[in-house]
Amino acid sequence: MGDNSPMMMAGTFPFGAPAYGYTVPASQPMYATSATPAMSAGTNALTDKDLLLLVELMALEMNAARKCRHFARSTSDDGVMTALERASQMHQRHLKVMLQHCQVGGMGLWS
To answer: Which domain of life does this protein belong to (predicted)?
Structure first.
């Protein structure tokens, strides 16, 4: 193999990292630390990663509320129906709280 092949380059592994016995040199950081804020409001700034996680959590809450509501409508057991409706309302409240936390100076993040 030549000196420029991928297997000879430092820090690269063509088939993924080894399972054990490898440590990252101090000159190469394990994780990138330069996340750019999505908002510039001092300590209230969200990084891009924070924003992606928040959007994913809101999607999960919306999906959970929708599924609970669907199964509450399709069951004939009153106890199960009540429990699923309460779970759906709980997930809707969680989503509403997250949306309220995303309000920035009277303007929403997605407006």
So the answer is: Bacteria
